[in-house]
Write a structure and sequence with these properties.
mainly beta; ten-stranded antiparallel β-sheet; seven-stranded antiparallel β-sheet; disordered N terminus
């Protein structure tokens, strides 16, 4: 083949792989919607056509490169295909994304992100995993499993319709008869859906209505009964053996449910409900655990907040809940603050992270050991911690420092002490969730996937899950991912929301977190996945809750702020 022929051959291959055809070469970015199996898609609500349709492989939605680039505002001349190396480069302004067919690494402005799937060539076309590419360009992604639709949004996601059902014929609210108290401690509870308009009962079935443990509806709970009582009521019956305790579920009502006039729902609907055990939750202890996995910068006890003051070199201070009587306790740079009895326990970063205690009035400062300690948990007469002086293994030491015991040989992260157990992410086993008895017996692996940002609250453990085998990522102390919830009794696991989150802190009925999909802004959501609320516009790290205040690090300013749990009264911590 001559040189000129080779050039033409490469051009033909490029056009075939990119799927350019006769498509327009200039466009503006906007919100986009793609549906699996359909060659129609929407840009800002306007229908467009593709030559090939998206598909699902390994649980991810693949979209042809040209149309995905169009959705995120990449011009045709900024799509570069390197046939020799099978690499794709997409450029928009100062943003550059690079991928390679068959490779799970995604480069965003030169920084590597780990994907769980890779770009593919199918029937001579290059397809890309839509969510990873869109997020690389700063888009938010929503997946509707019922309609097999992926939606790309500029900026943050709209709040999902979790408690109303709207039809095109009528926008009047249709809610569960038990809403908003969609929770029970009865594992055999039967729920009733109440519609305000007559529905076609032939469309009310377990095919069109189902229950999922995940907000995105990707999995179905088998054995759930869906029965039309009449044209305005439907019954949701538990599976054999009942609903799992301490779990959150989502009723998914798809657009295949029709009114008697044949009108579908405007959107598929997700309604959360939870099954709780009757138990006494120690709010103060739960609050301490969530703070400790966020570096323990604040703790509340008897009307006082003990905290790290970023305005004075991160030294140990205390202040009353009303903001009065601020007082420096020591000249130590403090972290992992615990308050128990008359003492404040902390890791002294001024002395290489060694464990110290000091009286709550600032007297009697005592060093307890020479170990560099992370994740200090004080319970009764013992202090439990990850000993960085011994590869991060779990140790315990008496509060008087006289007895010190090594409990395991694992590099432990996100230690939570709850009941008779220590829960932790085992960094030596890809950050999988483990537990071990307080005396070091009965080490048990709980999950087979990496877990981060662990919080034990009540009878459940909350954590973020990010599928990665990258050893460098696994060494990180915090990695964003979807918030999952697992019952400690049954190990039943459910995904709670659609945000990528980190710096998670669970207190009572609320989860506070930094929302990666919205520039790390501070959010909260109920433990059943409902009432997702944005609290501020700060780039948020190290979320600690003390009283009705949230203490956090404003990453942009590298100083600590506090804000009420309802999002009011934002203040610099002084």
């Amino acid at each position: 083949m001559g040189k000129k022929s080779r050039v033409w051959y490469l051009c033909i291959v490029l056009i075939l792989l990119l799927g350019i055809g006769g498509a327009s070469q200039a466009w503006a970015a906007g919100n986009a919607t793609f549906t699996v199996g359909s060659t129609s898609y929407y840009m800002d609500g306007v229908a467009q056509n593709m030559e090939v349709a998206p598909y699902i492989n390994n649980g991810r939605t693949y979209v042809p490169i040209l149309y995905l680039a169009q959705a995120v505002g990449v011009q045709t001349n900024n799509i570069v295909w390197d046939a020799e190396n099978a690499t794709i480069t997409l450029s928009k302004g100062d943003q550059v994304i690079q991928m390679q067919v068959g490779n799970k690494n995604l480069l965003v402005n030169g920084a590597t992100r780990q994907m769980d799937v890779a770009p593919e060539i199918t029937s001579g076309r290059t397809f890309l995993p839509a969510s990873f590419v869109a997020q690389g360009f700063g888009y938010s992604v929503d997946w509707d499993a019922a309609s097999q639709t992926i939606k790309l949004y500029q900026g943050s996601l709209p709040n999902p319709p979790v408690n109303t059902i709207n039809t095109k014929a009528e926008t009047e609210s249709r809610t569960w008869e038990d809403w908003p108290a969609a929770a029970t401690d009865d594992p055999n509870h039967t729920w009733t859906i109440v519609f305000k308009q007559a529905m076609d009962t032939s469309t009310i079935s377990s095919i069109n209505i189902y229950v999922s443990p995940d907000l995105d509806g990707s999995r179905r709970i088998e054995g759930v009964g869906i029965t039309a009582i009449d044209s305005t009521h439907a019954k949701v019956s538990p599976p054999s053996g009942g609903w799992s305790k301490d779990a959150t579920f989502y009723l998914i009502i798809t657009q295949k449910v029709l009114t008697t006039a044949g009108t579908p729902l405007e959107d598929a609907v997700r309604m959360p409900f939870s099954i709780s055990s009757i138990n006494n939750v120690n709010t103060e202890t739960n609050m301490a655990r969530g703070n400790i996995v966020n570096s323990g910068i604040a703790a509340e006890k008897d009307g006082w907040i003990y905290y790290t003051n970023s305005n004075d070199g991160f030294l140990l201070y205390k202040i009353r809940l009303d903001g009065s009587e601020r007082c420096k306790l020591s000249n130590d740079i403090s972290a992992y603050i615990n308050v128990m009895g008359d003492w404040v326990y902390y890791s002294n970063e001024s002395d290489n992270g060694k464990i110290y205690k000091i009286n709550k009035d600032g007297s009697d400062r005592i060093k307890l050991c020479d170990d560099k300690a992370l994740y200090i948990n004080v319970l009764d007469d013992w202090i439990y911690y990850s000993n960085e002086s011994d590869n991060g293994n779990i140790y315990k030491i008496q509060v008087d420092g006289k007895v010190r015991i090594k409990l395991n040989n694992d590099r432990a992260r996100f230690i939570n002490v709850a009941g008779d157990w220590i829960y932790y992410a085992n960094n030596d086993d890809e950050n999988k969730l483990y537990k071990i008895h307080l005396d070091g017996r009965e080490q048990t692996k709980i999950t087979d996937h990496p877990t981060f940002n662990l919080n034990v609250s009540g009878n459940c453990v909350y954590y973020t899950i990010y599928n990665t085998s990258n050893p460098m990522l696994l060494m990180n102390l915090s990695i964003p991912g979807f918030i999952n919830k697992m019952s400690l009794d049954s190990n039943y696991e459910s995904k709670l929301n659609i945000d990528e989150a980190w710096y998670v802190n669970v207190v009572d009925d609320w989860i506070y977190y930094s929302n990666v999909r919205d520039g790390d802004k501070l959010y909260k959501v109920r433990i059943n996945g409902s009432e997702r609320t944005k609290l501020n516009d700060d780039e948020t790290r190290l979320i600690n809750v003390a009283g009705d205040w949230i203490y956090y690090q404003n990453w942009g300013e590298m100083r600590f702020y506090r804000i009420r749990v309802d999002g009011s009264e934002r203040q610099i911590v002084e």
